[in-house]
Design a protein that fits this description.
The protein has three domains: 144 residues, MoaB/Mog-like domain (Molybdenum Cofactor Biosythetic Enzyme, Chain A), CATH 3.40.980; 58 residues, Molybdopterin biosynthesis moea protein, domain 2 (Alpha-Beta Complex); 66 residues, MoeA, C-terminal, domain IV (Beta-clip, Beta Barrel), CATH 2.40.340.10. Strand 10, helix 3 and strand 11 form a beta-alpha-beta unit. By secondary structure, the chain is an alpha+beta fold. The protein is built from seven helices and 23 strands. Helix content is 18%, strand content 25%. The longest helix is centred in the C-terminal third of the chain and has 20 residues.
Length: 365
């Protein structure tokens, strides 16, 4: 069976519909993506406050003050501490050192100096955040006084991860995929599937927005994932993708729930998630695709036509040094490099000195 090209795989993933949204309290909205435009909180009838320790004063009354011409400001000097409400009739805070022992100003001050405007602290309703905006820590306090404090955000997709037992070694896929999904803002529920019947039951009974089957995704006699999807009442639309590692990846449906097949080899699963599953999760949660760095190849990269190869590289002084063979080194090899160069399917590689994009593996940012 000829593997599907990477462009065909991406087209399938990009066609998966997802517009679900939910409400979140401001304190729970950090990192979430707005599903619709939102304005900041309206100002409550609060007073401006002192932004430093000193004396509240009417700024105009200090005009011309100096060490040689101390002035007793009209209206007087009112001691204030940081956070105190500004007394009526005052519009600036003289620092302690700008007042002499006789309570006279020895320096002028401008209106607003040393004052924290309430509008600057919590917003006045004029700050508009568009749909698709990812909420930052400095954004969240601006919603504290909204009449309805909850915010419309993209729904965190529920993902059931059906994990086949490893052919050898410990189960690292449960930890790996759980961490990657959490990083993409999903809610992961990992289910071990020690047998094909357990895999069928897990897929058929999943209460999820997305099902991922990790392991047993190939064409061998014990590769039960494609058959399990069919037995659960689903179908596989695309099986095998022309990427190395990660060729045995696949996509399909079980009812209205998309199903992704990931290889059982940890490095191949990481590659499949990086290029395929992570793309879908970013679409679902509203996150942008990562922007690759660029570097100049120190040595050539050779690749066979027909597959998109992920070639690991280390970066130093703007140069990318290819490391080892495609698919070698496992997760340790992926963790010890700076990223990878993706060689297109119809390319035989890149010569030394070529400027190439360097991508990060999922979970390495």
């Amino acid at each position: 069976m000829t593997p599907a090209g990477l462009a065909e795989a991406w087209a399938w993933l990009d066609a998966v519909p997802w517009t679900a949204s939910e409400w979140a309290e401001p304190q729970d909205a950090l990192g979430r993506v707005l599903a619709s435009p939102v304005g900041s909180a309206p100002v409550l009838p609060e007073q401006d406050r002192a932004a430093r320790n000193g004396y509240a004063v009417r700024a105009a009354a200090t005009e011309g003050a100096s060490a040689y011409n101390p002035i007793a400001p009209a209206g007087g000097l009112v001691p204030v501490s940081t956070g105190n409400a500004m007394p009526p009739g005052t519009d600036a805070v003289l620092p302690w050192e700008a007042v002499d022992e006789g309570s006279q100003a020895v320096a002028p001050i401008a209106a607003g100096d040393g004052v924290a405007s309430y509008r600057d602290q919590v917003g006045d309703g004029t700050i508009a955040f568009p749909a698709g905006h990812r909420l930052r820590a400095l954004d969240v306090p601006l919603f504290a006084n909204r009449p309805i404090p909850r915010l419309p955000v993209r729904k965190a997709p529920r993902v059931t991860v059906v994990v086949a037992p490893p052919r050898h070694g410990p189960d690292v896929l449960t930890l790996l995929l759980g961490a990657l999904l959490a990083e993409n803002g999903a809610i992961a529920h990992c289910v071990p599937a020690p047998s094909q019947s357990a895999m069928v039951d897990a897929v058929a009974g999943a209460e999820a927005d997305l099902v991922m089957i990790a392991g047993r995704s190939g064409d061998g006699p014990d590769d039960t994932a494609p058959a399990a999807v069919a037995q659960a009442g689903g179908r596989i639309d695309l099986h095998r993708v022309a990427i190395r590692p990660g060729t045995s990846s696949g996509f399909g449906w079980c009812g209205e729930v998309p199903v992704l097949l990931l290889p059982g080899d940890p490095l191949a699963a990481l590659a499949s998630y990086t290029l395929l599953a992570g793309r879908l999760l970013r679409r679902m949660t509203g996150q942008p695709d990562p922007v690759p760095a660029t570097a100049t190849l120190r040595r050539k990269i050779a690749s066979g036509v027909g597959y998109a190869d992920l070639v690991r590289v280390r970066l130093a002084d703007g140069l990318a040094d290819p490391i080892g063979a495609v698919g070698a080194g496992g997760l340790v090899g992926a963790a010890q490099v700076d990223g990878f160069v993706l060689v297109p399917e119809q390319s035989e590689g890149f010569p030394p000195g070529a400027v190439v994009p360097v991508h990060r593996f999922a979970g390495a940012a």
